[in-house]
Specification:
- It contains 1 helix and 6 strands, in the order E-E-E-E-E-E-H.
- The chain has a single domain, classed as OB fold (Dihydrolipoamide Acetyltransferase, E2P) (Beta Barrel), CATH 2.40.50.140.
- The radius of gyration is 15 Å and the shape is globular.
- By secondary structure, the chain is of the alpha/beta class.
- Strands 2-3-4-6-5 form a 5-stranded mixed beta barrel.
């Protein structure tokens, strides 16, 4: 029996991850990047921030990652929506991306989306 395919994480910025967003869905597979604001070793919960937006990350499955507040991290995982409409990402992988220019990252993400949208519109004509 074949196992279900693991979905790639859709690139999303934390400010975009609002309840009205197309990405804000239970079980959505996402890739998020932000600066580590806090980390609890007891609960394995990290909080990352980008601009004024924050997201809680459940890191219980990440064994080899050392967390340092102020460092920039990227996580891929599944989004879970709590009853109070707060989101937490169940991370299946994570990495330290210190040195990344977040402004440039946001610009490149917009260009990728623009390219994909143009490609989709060209394939339907």
């Amino acid at each position: 029996m074949a196992s279900p395919a693991i979905k790639s994480g859709a690139l999303v910025t934390l400010p975009e991850l609002q309840p009205s967003s197309e990405f804000f869905k239970e079980g959505a597979s996402l890739r998020v990047t932000g600066k580590l604001q806090e980390y609890s070793a007891e609960t394995a919960i990290a909080v990352i921030a980008d601009e004024s937006a924050t997201l809680r990350i459940d890191t219980q499955h990440l064994r080899e990652l050392s967390f340092r507040v102020g460092s920039i991290f990227q996580f891929i995982g599944e989004l879970h929506i709590q009853p109070n409409n707060e989101a937490i990402l169940q991370a299946r992988t994570g990495r330290n991306v210190d040195g990344i220019d977040l402004d440039l990252y946001h610009q490149s993400l917009q260009l990728v989306r623009q390219f994909q949208a143009e490609r989709m519109s060209n394939s339907t004509t």
